[in-house]
Design a protein that fits this description.
Blueprint: E1 28-32, E2 45-52, E3 55-60, H1 70-76, H2 90-93, E4 97-99, E5 103-113, E6 122-124, E7 129-132, H3 135-142, E8 150-159, H4 163-169, E9 173-177, H5 180-184, H6 191-198, H7 203-208
Parallel strand pairs: 4-8
Antiparallel strand pairs: 1-2, 1-9, 2-3, 3-8, 5-7, 5-8, 6-7
Length: 213
């Protein structure tokens, strides 16, 4: 797998952050490059939940899911009754609902801090981040017994074996270390720029080079 981060069209090519020794990026963030050309992932930051020889799966953490809010979703699922949103814990009332990716968009995936775990349902990705995709975690968040930090994503991003590696080699993605603020932070609209700055790239300079062949 080639190092990510080379910008097409530059006379002096600058390498991005090196790949981990394993060659896999699970537990890291992908940052979409303008030259990718796929509108579904434009200006996206994706937390990679799994990456191996069998493919990859991740959750977009910076694209809101339109006008859907968490209390409304809880009502639709029958977890709370209409009007009961005023009884929700503060972190549930303000919890972000995101567009996690183009695959399985009718299903919810909760990325959350590792202080919450459901046996046989929660995937521990690293020391600080887990993924749970059952309605039980939504009930726990609604009654105040859920994780301290969480985001709910509708759908996910998926790659076939070797596909993500090919896209990285084609300058489609940069990658950087994940941190809790970039994953769970409230400033969804600022995450793309902050992720780029984390690896020393000025977002303004990057957007000016979009479209170079």
């Amino acid at each position: 797998m080639a190092p990510a981060g080379k910008r097409t069209g530059e006379s002096t090519r600058r390498a991005g952050p090196a790949l981990p020794n394993s060659g896999y990026l699970d537990g890291r963030l992908l940052i979409a490059m303008p030259v990718m050309g796929d509108s579904r992932f434009e200006r996206s930051v994706i937390y990679l939940c799994a990456h191996s020889a069998e493919g990859a799966m991740g959750i977009i953490v910076n694209h809101p899911a339109g006008s859907i809010d968490f209390p409304e979703l809880l009502q639709q699922l029958g977890i709370i009754k209409k009007g009961e949103h005023i009884k929700l814990p503060e972190n549930a009332e303000s919890m972000k609902v995101l567009r996690g990716g183009p695959v399985d968009t009718g299903r919810g995936f909760v990325l959350h801090s590792s202080d919450f775990y459901i046996e046989n349902a929660t995937l521990r990705i690293d020391d600080g981040v887990c993924l749970t995709a059952t309605v039980d975690i939504l009930r726990a968040i609604a009654n105040g017994s859920g994780p301290k930090h969480a985001i709910l994503a509708l759908g996910y991003a998926g790659w076939a074996p070797g596909q993500l590696e090919t896209e990285i080699q084609s300058n489609g993605w940069l990658h950087c270390d994940a941190d809790a603020d970039l994953i769970f932070g409230d400033d969804v609209d600022e995450k793309y720029a902050r992720a780029l700055r984390k690896i020393g790239i000025d977002p303004g300079m990057l957007s000016n080079e979009a479209g170079h062949a």
